[in-house]
Amino acid sequence: MKLFSLTLALCMVLSGSLCFAQADGAIEEDFKPSTLNQPGKEYPMVNSQGYARFRVEAPEAQSVSVSLGLGGRGGTTLTKNEEGVWMGTTEGPMDEGFHYYHLTIDGGVFNDPGALNFYGSTRWESGIEIPAHDQDFYALKDVLHGNVQQVLFPSKSTGTSRRAFVYTPPGYGKDQTKRYPVLYLQHGWGEDETAWSNQGHANLIMDNLIAEGKIKPFIIVMTYGMTNEVRWGHMNEFKIENFQTVLVDELIPYIDTNFSTIADQSHRAMAGLSMGGMETKTITLNKPEVFSYYALLSGGIYSPEDVKDHAKLKLIFLSCGSKERPDGVKKAVDTLKEAGFNAVSYVSEGTAHEFLTWRRSLLELAPLLFKD
Amino acid sequence: MKLFSLTLALCMVLSGSLCFAQADGAIEEDFKPSTLNQPGKEYPMVNSQGYARFRVEAPEAQSVSVSLGLGGRGGTTLTKNEEGVWMGTTEGPMDEGFHYYHLTIDGGVFNDPGALNFYGSTRWESGIEIPAHDQDFYALKDVLHGNVQQVLFPSKSTGTSRRAFVYTPPGYGKDQTKRYPVLYLQHGWGEDETAWSNQGHANLIMDNLIAEGKIKPFIIVMTYGMTNEVRWGHMNEFKIENFQTVLVDELIPYIDTNFSTIADQSHRAMAGLSMGGMETKTITLNKPEVFSYYALLSGGIYSPEDVKDHAKLKLIFLSCGSKERPDGVKKAVDTLKEAGFNAVSYVSEGTAHEFLTWRRSLLELAPLLFKD
Known about the structure:
Structural class of chain A: alpha+beta
Distance between the termini of chain A: 45 Å
CATH topology of the largest domain in chain A: Rossmann fold
Largest interface: A-B, 67 and 66 residues
Order of helices and strands of chain A: EEEEEEEEEEEEEEEEHHEHEHEEHEH
Largest sheet of chain A: 8 strands, mixed
Helix content of chain A: 10-25%
Shape of chain A: globular
Oligomer: homodimer
């Protein structure tokens, strides 16, 4: 068996106070530690406008830069002071929400020791959180919380046990007769099964929606989708069969056996972001008897001719950031509706191909699932 | 509420093949990637004798060293080749098992981008695994696996929801009438509630013991013990009350309410490593009605006079590495036995104050729990 390591990092953040950004060009000096810093670490810091400020100790280094920012070659160049401490601030504000980044120190890529780590771009990157005006929906609040569990499910097709994370709503397990629908939720290229929990805060988004009575509680299953790994820019080499087999033939049966699920098509949804959306589209169309809710988050569109028979298809949900291709998503939904599909589009204002788009998409999608 | 972030990292490793080390001084060139590397990363590498080899890209750096090794100032100095790649091998073999480490690049501390991250010494450090002759007991095997879940429990005393990880044995939850004993298992100074899962592989150790029929299955609860944080070397400033309140007044009731536990003293154990052992000793003696199995792993000893009434105390387990103070542990157990206690000592051969000592201690302890 191949040597491998799997790591789960689950992250919860407590949202701090938030001021609206000024429009007059001055940088507000209300910098605070990013909520995704390692315990006790002051830097990196973020301000209410979305600027990020970095501080790195490397007294003998000759150059230190940060991959985040709007600087000349992209990123932020830091400058060293007399104490050997490198500091710098992004040239402009970042989009609200989560961003991956790393440092380049004397030509080598390293993480920022002040920040927590998040798996993306096929490595554990540093992460930073820019305060968002609507961040309350993914905050850690004083409500009943669900659990997120690591399960190891047997996979004959890949010759090992594979990992998935399963969110169960508050109260799950107390009443043995109560059964739940299931959303299979996929990450994007270069990410892994920790993304939706760590970067996405899926569990906190669900806890809060359930506390507000806005959704029919359901289980979320998150596993690794890049079973057949491809390099960035080589998406055409991706073969869906490996992951499709793991998901449909191995994971779904495992979940239905080991969790209190309503194990039928009308209580099973699939959603994915970016490459996870591509996988969702491919698998839902290859296996039309498995899911009845399809959601692509910055992950493509469906056309009416894609779906041979949509009698049992309850919803197609397409979303993206306003800085992506919102017209494409809206037009696709209009076309689907004209053809008799139940279709919904959502555009996240002011965000691009990044995690706040997808947190907001989950917020919009969840209330639409499993209600009929 | 204070801004904070909590991150869980759960790590599973698949053990590779293992050769016994040679005794003749030559370095075996059978280096393989450490099983704790990030996906796809070749370095750091380890060989069958316990040597570790590092490779870091930082072409313009002036100095790169690794904190692990037996070099002059402790650690391993790397040297740069013509391609700007820094490499080096530890001067001697490391102890078997898990080690924390970090890089120092031009005077700044950074993690090794090839390695996964593990929380210890109050920061997310890099980690490396030296193959152990007995590593099979914590390997990922083709057996039924338990789950490890993140729970968020309300804590009035600290004004927030706090995180714990709960290992449930395979089959947990299927039979609503089946109830389980509970082990409360604490980490050491500078670590957190991820340690026993990530560094310790507690879940895999339990899965394998259960598959072999060697233990009475139980639940393990792992939470953060440094509620009142102290700096290294300032242990005398530690006040137990904060954590004692969280554990006894908040976490235990939450676990007993939300999990199928046998909620009484004779089915509740507490164990801890290092500072977690100090906490275990203090709390078990402050609250003698709560636990009936006490285990200190490289974490001190009990004397007969510590325990006023040991009628309900079923076991005291004391362990350490052979490179620590094994005579102290053995002598303490002899004294306890002479005074009529059921006491057991365990010494891990060839290890020091490090995680293989504690994985092995859990292996020895688990079969002794909850059998009477």
